[in-house]
Amino acid sequence: MIKDLDIILTEGESYTVEFKEVPDKTLVEEVCAFANASGGKIYIGVSDNSEIKGTDTSNAARSKIQDTLNKIEPQLYFDIVVDTKTNIIIIDVPSGSEKPYSCPRGFYVRFGPNSQKLDRNSIIEFLQTEGISRYDTIVNEKLSISDNFNQKAFDDYLRKANISNVLSKESLLINLGCAEKLKDGRIVYTNAGALFFRDNSKDIKFEHSIVTCALYKGVTKMHMLDVKNFNEGIVNNIDEAMLFLKKHLNVSYEIETTQRKDIWEIPEKALRESVINSICHRNYFETGARVMIEIFDDRVEISNPGGAPKGITKENFGTVSITRNSVVASLLHRINYIEKMGTGINRIKESAKENSTEYQFDLVGFFKVSFKRKKKHINEGINEGINEGIKLSNEEIILKCLKENPHIRAKDIEGLFNISESTIYRIITKLKKEKRIERVGAKKDGFWKIV
């Protein structure tokens, strides 16, 4: 008698259990679905309502089942067991190691107690979720390295990675996994190469590689004070994002002997690791969202689309390393932006704890890390941190605001620095008369230029 058969019959069909009275034409679909999911067992000779009916268990019947299941591609190895007391055939299907598997009628996967046929979009999503198709390794035949090559980003990368420029640009890119030579002789980018070394700033096809940094007044997204979009390569995106954070967070300093030490209200290391993690491990197949770095009065949020990679759970988070974009991670590791694979989360935690900074991770939908800010007004950070403890005059504050954000409005400056609107307009009028600033474009869509 099958072990625990009574319990199995009582619990009924599930994600890993399927009942069939006879080995009908849908059997191959069920086996295919189990192989594409987490595996399972099919009990032939049991009705849908868990009644034992028995089935033909002869060698001929088993051989016919074997022949039917051999139509699954690629070849799948499974066990067929016969229980002679109940005349039940059990097909034990493992979770396949060469997913996806298909049968003559298409691709199937197990969802709950049912098997479902996948359409085109579902197949694409399945491949991405399983990590079978990795965005950064895909060769993009439409993107020749002769088009929009960012020479500065390439030279900076070689310098940071201590790679001597003795080989040709093309050979170096191929060796780094950033390019591939096609049969027709053309050398084209892989997606990783395009993310690092192609000038994507004006290419709508690579909009999803943009990193957006935003500063808000208050604790909601109602009033945006500053926003920047960076799309000049992954390394530049990381560096620019950190500069944006430094500009808008409170940063004081200490003098130790002849060296100056910056002290961030949220540890720089924790922020940097979070920014790198979000850019390195985002789901680049998801084109409808971006890496977001958002500063509020009470917190900083850094998020990326795609959630945690498949296999990462709340229980093993921070202890298991699964890389969604292996080439991107390798390229960052070469320039020491990633110290050791899989240690970033723990470094975020340790750095935050050292500074008594509260933090929180969210793994669902978007991967997000939030840091609680110290209770200190934003303009104190500009006056005390960026300007090294020197109190700025209203005129200097307004000039600095116009320089850092040419589109800033008077009411935004008023809200940030408690300067009256009439004073702001008086100072701006004075600066214009002195030809130190000028207005470019229309009142609504124009911007300020520092002369």
In words, what does this structure look like?
31% of the residues are buried. Helix 8 (234-248) runs antiparallel to helix 9 (268-280) and helix 9 (268-280) packs antiparallel against helix 11 (344-354). The protein has 4 domains: 5-129, Schlafen, AAA domain (Methyltransferase, Cobalt-precorrin-4 Transmethylase, Domain 2); 135-199, no CATH class; 207-372, 2-Layer Sandwich (Heat Shock Protein 90), CATH 3.30.565; 392-450, Winged helix-like DNA-binding domain superfamily/Winged helix DNA-binding domain (Arc Repressor Mutant, subunit A, Orthogonal Bundle), CATH 1.10.10.10. The strands form 6 sheets. The protein has a 6-stranded mixed sheet. The protein has a 4-stranded mixed sheet with strand order 1-2-4-3. Strands 5-6-7 form a 3-stranded antiparallel sheet. It is built from 15 helices and 20 strands. It is elongated and about 100 Å long. The chain has helices at residues 5-11, 27-36, 59-69, 120-129, 151-161, 169-175, 191-197, 234-248, 268-280, 326-334, 344-354, 378-386, 394-404, 410-417, 421-433; strands spanning 17-20, 40-44, 79-83, 88-93, 102-103, 106-111, 114-117, 139-144, 179-181, 187-190, 211-217, 223-230, 251-256, 259-264, 291-295, 299-305, 359-362, 366-372, 437-440, 447-450. It is 34% helix and 23% strand. The chain is an alpha+beta fold and 451 residues long.
